[in-house]
């Protein structure tokens, strides 16, 4: 009987864990923001993540791929129609079935924000829309050239971390995501997730503020750097993930330590409700359908007895839309750290004291020397 | 990759032992390499025979082949040129050019068209080609229009190789009117020399490692002074010099074969050039990120304009301060015993002062115009009356007019109605100082070295000269500081720095040839040094000379 109790307990914990993530579909928004031949590695970065995400099950209809320049057919590419991520041309990440949704000059800050918030003109085709709902887990991957608090798009404009945080808050208020994983591989990438304030966002960056993200290796035949270090090791990590893998986010945080990346990767989990240890990689990178196999019949008729009990409950006061959702009760945000100033009265008192001492010592008649 | 270049190069280098410019052979060879080949013929009659290069009526053909980029639109181009001289001294460069053309043809990563140009009569042919390519006619050259074109040229390299093995590669940057290419081009050359392991030099001098010692510092200063002198001369020191006028970054690479043990063969040079061209191919914009105004004490160090311009600024300030001093002196009239007389006089003195100033100014400038136009115009009459060649006639006429200007002050005063006054020379000096300051400032902006060298000699003369100094001594000092003598010193210093010092008679002959080259550069390529010196600097110096002899 002890065995029976133990098994029962085990099954229920597995069941609770099974229904823990609460998402029913997966989306991915993968953006490369830089153009020009020498930014080959950014396109290769995005295509490697695209490749992993597609391999793990997210279909093209749920991936919004934005590439700011065409490297495969660039005139300077000695191997046309290929984009390699490993030197000696081991891995061509631009295969036969790459579907680019936003290409070239369409990759702008405005288009990116419109994709995230869903405010697109009615004529936009489905492949260019992020049609997520409140049960979607979204992976957002950005790469390019960045700085402290901004990411450069196409050498002519920038998106700031405040804009990005506001876009995510818009997404939250319109219930466009269940959980969001934000990965950024740029110089000083950690500055981009500093300003997030919406719940259920987990963020990873390839370098801290003040550090540069470095590129991995050049290929001597092609003549450019092929990948950035963080994404290179991320790709290596993801190649070991398969749809049934139980690897969790803590493993992802360990990708590319300082010895390999030279920069210090960072992550942010305070806005995320679940424990990162219980978040599977495939919750974001794959499209894993949850299947429950049951050998017992499910009784549907017993639900008829419940309305008798429901009428005995006291009437509760009407709740606003936002308050009905459980998250609004649970969310605790740390109060914003304000810089400490000495109280205003103290400064006023100090100046009064100084003036009094001055006039006491020198007398009022000396005022005429000042004016 | 290098294994492919060797047999191609050997094949070509064997073939180029022909006399003159083998036009048909070059056209056939380039076409066989898959280039689009076109020719351009040009003629030019020099104003007087050029004794250095022994040419007077020049007639030639330029041949160029265009390698079209396989996948790119024909909007941008790179140029690789090798001058073909009648005495076959640059045949190795032409062979290397053809070898590179064949190798480049088989690659698919070119995003710009590459023009392989073989020009005849070095600078004259290059000028004809550039004028034809850009549809301009600045220098009065007669040329056939170009049939084939490749888009706007982004960068150009000119190759000079006289032997098939070299010990070092020399980089030449100075162009027409002292213009320099972007420093990134020099850095690119140096980076590839380091990578491939070829010895590279600038101004023909090898870089020393010891910067801290006195010898190392002197060596660097000598290299920099060579660059200053070459830039001041305003002549293009390689075929690349004419590209700079069209905002095309260009440099010349010259192979030097000296008595060192370690020799580099043409294959390595080919790899170096291939690397440079591939880098230039990957460029998306014209070179503009680095400095355009710099001086290089060595290939790894440079002095930017922010460092050297204040030195010139201080010299110009001397002139301005002196002018301010004179202005104040002119403004406060001399203290007279009667106040009434003191107030009336300045008015009339100023009027008379302006008139008496105008005459020397006009006469000095007329002398300058004579110095600019007469030497070339009067060469025929000079040749009839004196047993000299045309070139000598031109140069000697120029020197004669220059020295005749020294006699002017005695004659000018005959034209002035009244006597020169104390105020008069001050007004003249004020005008001369301001004129000189503006002139030197403008020159230094365009060609810093020329402005600086002129400033070093003219500013002391201009600041100090007054009629009250001992005449003979000051006259000697003024002559020694005049532009002509400055040119003479520069010739001697240049030879000294090149480690080929000359004796006085040789130096004098060199000086004469420099003058003739200056006049020829002006009429052939539009160099501005000779007109500047003759029309503007020399009259200014004459004004100062007038002040010295003011009565």
UniProtKB/TrEMBL annotation, chain A:
Q: What is this protein called?
A: GPI-anchor transamidase
Sorted alphabetically, the Gene Ontology cellular component annotations on this record are: GPI-anchor transamidase complex
What GO MF annotations does this protein's record show?
A: GPI-anchor transamidase activity
Subunit text: Heteropentamer. Part of the GPI-anchor transamidase complex, consisting of PIGK, PIGT, PIGS, PIGU and GAA1. Interacts with GPAA1. Interacts with PIGT; this interaction, via a disulfide link, stabilizes the expression of GAA1 and PIGK and links them to PIGS.
This protein's pathway reads: Glycolipid biosynthesis; glycosylphosphatidylinositol-anchor biosynthesis
Q: Where is the active site?
A: 145, 187
Recall the taxonomic lineage recorded for the source organism: Eukaryota, Metazoa, Chordata, Craniata, Vertebrata
The record, for PANTHER family, names: GPI-ANCHOR TRANSAMIDASE
Could you tell me which Gene3D superfamilies the record lists for this protein? 3.40.50.1460
Q: Which organism is it from?
A: Pygocentrus nattereri (Red-bellied piranha)
State the encoding gene.
PIGK
Tell me which UniProt keywords the record has, alphabetically: GPI-anchor biosynthesis, Membrane, Signal, Transmembrane, Transmembrane helix
Automatic annotation (TrEMBL), chain B:
The biological pathway it contributes to is: Glycolipid biosynthesis; glycosylphosphatidylinositol-anchor biosynthesis
Q: Name one GO biological process term.
A: attachment of GPI anchor to protein
- Tell whether Transmembrane is among the UniProt keywords: yes
The compartments listed are: Endoplasmic reticulum membrane
Function (record text): Component of the glycosylphosphatidylinositol-anchor (GPI-anchor) transamidase (GPI-T) complex that catalyzes the formation of the linkage between a proprotein and a GPI-anchor and participates in GPI anchored protein biosynthesis. Binds GPI-anchor.
Query: How does it associate, per the subunit comment?
Result: Heteropentamer. Part of the GPI-anchor transamidase complex, consisting of PIGK, PIGT, PIGS, PIGU and GAA1. Interacts with PIGK.
Q: What protein name is recorded for this chain? A: GPI-anchor transamidase component GPAA1
Organism in which the protein naturally occurs: Pygocentrus nattereri (Red-bellied piranha)
Which gene name belongs to this protein?
Answer: GPAA1
